[in-house]
Amino acid sequence: MESLAARITRREEVAPHHITLELDCPAIAHAATPGQFVHVRVSGTDDPLLRRPISIMLRDNYRGRIEILVRAVGRGTAILSNLAPGSALDIIGPLGHGFPVPEEDSRVLLVAGGVGVAPLIFLADTLQLAEQQHYVRGLLGAATEDMLVCWQDFAGRCEAFQAATEDGTAGARGLVTELVSEQLQRGVDIVYTCGPRPMMARVAELCAEQSVPCWASLEQFMGCGVGACLGCVIPTRLQPKHRRVCKDGPVFSASEVAWEELSE
Ligand SMILES: Cc1cc2nc3c(=O)[nH]c(=O)nc-3n(C[C@H](O)[C@H](O)[C@H](O)COP(=O)(O)OP(=O)(O)OC[C@H]3O[C@@H](n4cnc5c(N)ncnc54)[C@H](O)[C@@H]3O)c2cc1C
Ligand code: FES
Fold this sequence. Notes:
By secondary structure, this protein is α/β, with parallel strands linked by helices. Helix content is 20%, strand content 33%. It is built from six helices and 16 strands. The site of flavin-adenine dinucleotide has 22 residues, from strand 4, strand 6 and helix 2.
C-alpha cells in the first residue's frame, strides 16, 4: 500500500491534550470502514522513525475527508497534535480489519472509554446511515467530565446514550463497565467496545457470562502496520495463538483474546 499526502483542513482542541484533525484524503475516505486505522508519519524527517496508528473517527465520503481524534501521550502524538491546518501529513490507510456488520434489527451496545470513542463514532455513524434498522445504545466512560471527549458526536448517533465518570462530575459515578450489566439485562444482541484494556477485558467477561457476542478493538505498539514485522502480536485462544493487531485486527472477537495474558 502506498503512502499518501493528506492536507490538514481543520484542527480543534476538544479536551486537555486531545485534538481532532480533519484530513483531505479522498482515497482513504472512500475505502474506509469502521474500526480501520491510518498509519501516520508525524514529522517530515525520520525522527521519530516509526509511524503512529490512529483510528478513523469519521469520514465524509462526499468531500473526501476523514477525521481523527488524537490524545497526546508521548512525543509522536504531541508533534501530531501541534500541526496547523494547511500542513501535509504522510499517511497510509485504511489499514486493518474493522468491526463486523450486525444482523438486521440488532440491539447494538457500543462501550467506549476515552479516545476509544473514535472508532465507535464511525461505527455509530455507519449504522445510523445504513439501510438496515438497528437500535444503537452508547456508553462512554472517562475519569472526569472534561475527558468525555467528543461525547456529543457519539451520543447524537445513538438512540440512547449514557456517560459515566469516575469522579461523578457527569453521568453516573463510577466505571462505565458498571453500566454494561444493566444494559445487557435489558436485552442486547451484540456489543462493540474500544478503550483501555482492563475496561475491554471486563466488558468481554460480562458479555461471555450472558452469551452475548462482543467485538473489541485492540491497541498495540506498531512497527510496519501492515503485517510484516510481527511487532504488534497479541496472545489469543486461537491456533496459531499469536495474531497481529495491525493485519488480523485491530478488531477481534472478545472471546478469542487471551485477556489474562495481555499486559496493560
Ligand atoms: C489500531 C490503533 C488505533 C489507535 N487509535 C488511536 C486514536 O484514535 N487516537 C489516539 O490518540 N491514539 C490512538 N492509538 C494509540 C496511539 O497509536 C498511541 O498513543 C501512539 O502511538 C503513541 O505514540 P507517542 O509517540 O505519542 O507515544 P510514545 O512516546 O511512543 O509513548 C508514550 C506513552 O504512550 C504509551 N503508548 C504508546 N503507544 C501506545 C499504544 N499503541 N497503545 C497504548 N499505549 C501506548 C506508551 O506506553 C507510553 O507510556 C491507536 C493505536 C492503535 C494500535
Ligand atoms: S506492526 Fe508490523 S506486523 Fe503489525
